[in-house]
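User: Before I run my own analysis I want an independent prediction to cross-check against. Here's the chain; please return only the structure tokens and, at the end, one sentence I can use as a sanity check.
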Amino acid sequence: MDNAPLLIVLPFLVIAFILGVFLGRSSKKNKMGKIPTYTPFSLSSDYFKGLNFLLNEQTDKAIDVFVGMLEVGEETVDTHISLGNLYRQRGEVEQAIKIHQNVIAKPSLSLSKRNDALYELARDFMNAGLLDRAENLFQELIHKQSHVPSAMKSLLSIYQQEHDWDDAILIAKKLESASNKSYALQVAHFYCELALIDFKAGHSKGALKLVKKALGTDKNSVRASILEGEINRSLGNYKAATRAYRRVEQQDPLMVSEILESLLYCYKELNNNKEIKTYLEHVLNEYGGITSVLLCAKQIQSLKDDKAAALFIVDSLRKKPSIRGLSSLIDISLDFTKGTAHENLLILQEITSKLLENKPVYQCTQCGFNGKSMYWHCPGCKSWSSVKPIQGIEGE
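Assistant: Structure tokens:
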């Protein structure tokens, strides 16, 4: 038996029960305001009409009946708020907004209950994409010292969506104090976002200052080191660039493959071929990723020939199989093979190309989102620094 319809209706049945208890009690109040023992038969026909709608999975009609029966007051406000939240969870944000606005409009409510409804209304606006209105309500709640940590977290999410990095930095720092939790990783990324804007606008000095702030906030910010390397490389400051790129290995060894080509380019510009060889050998021995293997093969290819490079890749693939490595081996081998061997390699080349065609290169360690491009902010779970190069036969 399929339980899905029951699971959908169940929360509303709970609400209906609460309404029944309240309405049964309130309808039996005598003139002195005393509440006698609950009598279920005192409920109005509207209640049973609403309950019937629920049992027939007509939740919209049911809720309209229940809301119409129950006036907003201090004793019923939580029920109204819950109804609005259920609408929001079902994706019917307009209805949620309507209910929560109706609650807030009642002047007799206590400040605490009004702030509860205000917080839920702000969440409604946020879900509806009305970020300006949500932002104003969250700021109002913070000013009133109500729902402060939750309101700040929501504001932080809004500022990130709007790419308002200055305000994101300010609210993250306030959130650190309010929640006693570090937001250094996020703040470092916000500084990097600002640095990237300056860098693209041609303001390299300003961009470098912001990168330094990022590293001052989070010394393990790989993104800040890579960005510092890119900025210095564009300015021709190759020594400074190499220092920034080399820092990545200490910050996160899994990200070394992201800087290898840029680092080797800087060494080449500095005519430091010895350091190219030394660092490549170091990375190859320490981590053995396919990126370092292929870069070593290129060096061998330029210093010796294709056959020597191919033999080097073959030896590396024996130790650590890789589809990317196999594909490069085939490409190099095609240049010095003929006849049947050449034809066979062409077939293998087509197969490996198809294997790699739709294979992701990066994956989020938090939610599993994957893709061919590097994201500092995961599009799936919105985590920062959670996307890494995929390891193993299909990756590094």
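Sanity check: Confidence is low (pLDDT under 50) at residues 27-43.
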